[in-house]
Amino acid sequence: MKYISTRGTAPVLNFEEVLLAGLASDGGLYVPETLPSFSKEEIANWANLSYAELAFKVISPFVSDSVAASDLKKMIDETYAGFSHSAVAPLKELGTNEWVQELFHGPTLAFKDFALQLLGRLMDYALAKRGERLVIMGATSGDTGSAAIEGCRHSDHLDIFILHPHNRVSEVQRRQMTTILEDNVFNIALEGNFDDCQQMVKDSFADQSFLNGRKLGAVNSINWARIMSQIVYYFSAALALGGPYREVSFSVPTGNFGDIFAGYLAKQMGLPIKQLVVATNRNDILHRVISGNDMSKGTLEHTLSPSMDIMVSSNFERLLFDVYGRDGAAIADLMDRFKSGPVKLDGARWDSVRELFDSAAVNDEDTCATIASVYEETGYLLDPHTAIGVKAGRECNRDASVPMITLATAHPVKFPDAVLKAGLDAPQLPPHMADLFEREERVSVIDNDIAQVQAFMAGHMHD
Ligand SMILES: Cc1ncc(COP(=O)(O)O)c(C=O)c1O
Ligand SMILES: N[C@@H](CCOP(=O)(O)O)C(=O)O
């Protein structure tokens, strides 16, 4: 499998190179040159596989030039054995043809574990083979950070620096990151917002001179391996509900567009998906693009669903690359213009986006109302991000006979503020996190200034 950049001028790489490269050298994101596709018969044959077996089937074609099949199988088995639910990604029924897929049974209680616990293993495997080290720089609005740290903390080949927006993640999220005290783990609370953190990461890929010859790697969804691993649970959910001989729809709480892009890829790979609903909070650029061709950043606001407080959604570029006929020059030009102001998609391209996705934006009040009403009707407690997905799924549903599956992207215990505002009791931390609030924290608060962040990193990296 070869990987090409969305901006057309970076070198073509194989899987191992893409895994370690993160962002492409031309500023674009890597995507497979061609996607594997599966017939309905092939997909149907996977109906009785365990989650790990299914993951092996879906992931193998993307990595087979770089990872031996037996090694891949071992890494996948170990990854999903670390999840606390035997089904790994179980479905829960909320009502007639209304489901949530629980993606929060990994060690850090959010969907990020699906990819990041595997990514850490894949990186370690590749770096051990090469005898190399990597400096990881990641941006988080709360969930990627802890999952990435968990995936990398035991590695002899990685130093990991995670930037989160100071005072803009929940206390549980912050403590999940800052109480990990291994000497290769560094938490930076940036005096800025998530977009600032993410831009700093991208700018650091563009000029890596501060690393003094070391190499930079990514754990955010700019790294192709993140997206690849997230495709699996779409197959898992559809198979559980009668797919591929029955269509299903997904509503996906969306920020950086990585999770829903994985759903789009599952569809391109042959999974019959009727609707893909982009569910955003008040930071609604994606809803505005899809519904009104308005790709303008606006002001990033702090909401009760902080993990989705994102305006510059990295993976939208991967979609635009397809929609613009894989014309790297056109994407480079579009992204360049977007950097300095609002853009509109060409009419026919926008039509394609609207055909592929439905969308809705949900404010804090409706988020809380959904948490409260779903709890009252079913006894099921949604986290605020999932509540946005459920509300948007209901709003956008075009065919009540098709199951609508909302991806439950985080456990509500991570967001007690929203649960309390919904008038409900905050849930208890699970046993492995019961003493989270007593654990020592280590974090460095740094100005929103790339020179200061890079100087901090240069002063703490290992050789
Ligand atoms: C809990 C939660 N839900 C939804 C999202 C949105 O996912 P994505 O960024 O892949 O669109 C995130 C993070 O981005 C998240 O942490
Ligand atoms: N919501 C994310 C933001 C980063 O997105 P990613 O999927 O690109 O890592 C988070 O929780 O950090």
From TrEMBL:
It is an enzyme of class 4 (lyase). The modification N6-(pyridoxal phosphate)lysine is found at residue 112. InterPro entries: Ser/Thr_deHydtase_PyrdxlP-BS (IPR000634), Thr_synth_N (IPR029144), Thr_synth_N_sf (IPR037158), Thr_synthase-like (IPR004450), Threonine_Synthase (IPR051166), TrpB-like_PALP_sf (IPR036052). GO terms for molecular function: pyridoxal phosphate binding; threonine synthase activity. Keywords: Amino-acid biosynthesis, Lyase, Pyridoxal phosphate. It catalyses: O-phospho-L-homoserine + H2O = L-threonine + phosphate. Belongs to the threonine synthase family. Transmembrane segments: none annotated. Pathway: Amino-acid biosynthesis. Its EC number is 4.2.3.1. Residues 2-80 form the Threonine synthase N-terminal domain. SUPFAM superfamilies: Tryptophan synthase beta subunit-like PLP-dependent enzymes. This is Threonine synthase. Signal peptide: none annotated. It comes from the Bacteria.
